[in-house]
């Protein structure tokens, strides 16, 4: 087995430092130039090795910043000083997967020529599966100097992604849910750390599905919900709450109109392992109600 090669790099001002390790021949590693407007605007081409590792270290506290767009599942890491986009990461099953912007590596010319990729054209399930198959599965995020944890090393970029609901507002979840006209179509009303708070108006049977990697919290704002599980049924009246553990098949059913509040990780797909006419992308869920 060939010895792993270390590729060093970082942002323009040097506050963010990168170390990418791979046993692969760099000439066979092909950077992927994502054609979304964000990546194109930064001239990013992503390199990764599913058998490699990546370490990202910050300089002063506050210099490592993150930005989310699209589904919000992936986190783009930028330098807060010079603005250079260095990497993208995705938290999954307790670990961190990622890819590095090849333009930030000192030996960028050692890699193959970049090819254009269009991940935004993929269905959500295929996109996540692609990340897990291609990205670096071992990403270490080192705290910045003066930060006591990885969390303190990151500061969200101030820009509000298009379509998101401003978090400084104080929304009334029940009123927003009651005003919805489309059934089983959640709307994001807030966010807490890595989770979205959503509301929905439901009636009828949603359909059996599961979420492989995420728990899901249901809170009944009005009406009644029957949560069908394979081994039992849980009845929820107004004010009732139930958490469906990850991997557990469930089918929410409302005999009459019911208003719900849900708390889900941002990586949670609306209909889980099933894609049908009710599936809504996170972009659709972020639309103003």
Describe the structure.
This protein has helices at residues 37-42, 124-134, 150-153, 173-179, 282-285; strands at 5-10, 17-22, 32-34, 46-47, 53-57, 64-67, 75-79, 85-92, 95-101, 115-117, 138-142, 154-156, 187-192, 195-205, 216-222, 225-229, 233-236, 241-244, 250-265. The chain starts with a strand and ends with a helix. The chain has 5 helices and 19 strands. With 289 residues, it is mainly β. 11% of the residues lie in helices and 38% in strands. The relative contact order is 0.15.
Give keywords.
Metal Binding Protein, Guanine Nucleotide Exchange Factor, Chain A; mainly beta; seven-stranded antiparallel β-sheet; single chain; 289 residues; six-stranded mixed β-sheet; 5 helices
Entry summary:
This protein has 289 residues and is mainly beta. The chain has helices at 37-42, 124-134, 150-153, 173-179, 282-285; strands spanning 5-10, 17-22, 32-34, 46-47, 53-57, 64-67, 75-79, 85-92, 95-101, 115-117, 138-142, 154-156, 187-192, 195-205, 216-222, 225-229, 233-236, 241-244, 250-265.
Helical percentage? 10-25%
In CATH, the topology of the largest domain is named: Metal Binding Protein, Guanine Nucleotide Exchange Factor, Chain A
Compute the number of helices: 5
Q: What is the strand content? A: 35-45%
Query: In CATH, what is the class of the largest domain?
Result: Mainly Beta
Shape: elongated
Question: Would you identify the regions where 5 or more consecutive residues have pLDDT less than 50?
Answer: 144-168
Distance between the termini: 55 Å
Main sheet makeup: 7 strands, antiparallel
Provide the structure class: mainly beta
**Strands, total number:** 19
Give the mean pLDDT.
Answer: 84
Estimated radius of gyration: 21 Å
CATH architecture name of the largest domain: Beta Complex
The domain tally reads 2
What is the succession of H and E elements? Answer: EEEHEEEEEEEHEHEHEEEEEEEH
């Amino acid at each position: 087995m060939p010895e792993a090669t270390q590729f060093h790099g970082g942002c323009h001002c040097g506050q963010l430092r990168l170390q990418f390790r791979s046993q692969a021949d760099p000439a066979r590693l092909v950077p992927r130039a994502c054609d979304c407007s964000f990546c194109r605007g930064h001239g990013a081409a992503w390199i990764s090795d599913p058998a490699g590792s990546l370490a990202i270290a910050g300089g002063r506290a506050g210099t490592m910043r993150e930005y989310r767009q699209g589904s919000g599942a992936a986190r783009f890491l930028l330098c807060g000083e010079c603005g250079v986009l260095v990497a993208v990461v995705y938290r999954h099953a307790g670990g961190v997967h990622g890819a590095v912007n090849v333009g930030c590596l000192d030996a960028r010319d050692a890699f193959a020529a970049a090819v254009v990729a269009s991940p935004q054209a993929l269905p959500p399930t295929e996109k996540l599966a692609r990340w897990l198959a291609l990205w670096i599965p071992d990403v270490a995020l080192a705290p910045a100097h003066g930060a006591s944890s990885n969390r303190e090393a990151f500061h969200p970029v101030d820009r509000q992604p298009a379509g998101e609901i401003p978090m400084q507002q104080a929304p009334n979840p029940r009123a927003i849910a009651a005003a919805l006209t489309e059934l089983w179509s959640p709307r994001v009303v807030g966010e807490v750390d890595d989770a979205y708070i959503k509301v929905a108006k439901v009636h009828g049977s949603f359909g059996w599905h599961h979420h492989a990697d995420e728990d899901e919290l249901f809170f009944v704002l009005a009406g009644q919900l029957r949560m069908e599980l394979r081994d039992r049924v849980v009845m929820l009246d107004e004010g009732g709450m139930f958490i469906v553990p990850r991997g557990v098949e469930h089918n929410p059913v409302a005999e009459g109109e019911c208003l719900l509040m849900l708390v889900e990780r941002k990586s949670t797909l609306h209909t889980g392992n099933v894609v049908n006419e009710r599936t809504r992308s996170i972009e659709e869920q972020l639309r103003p109600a």
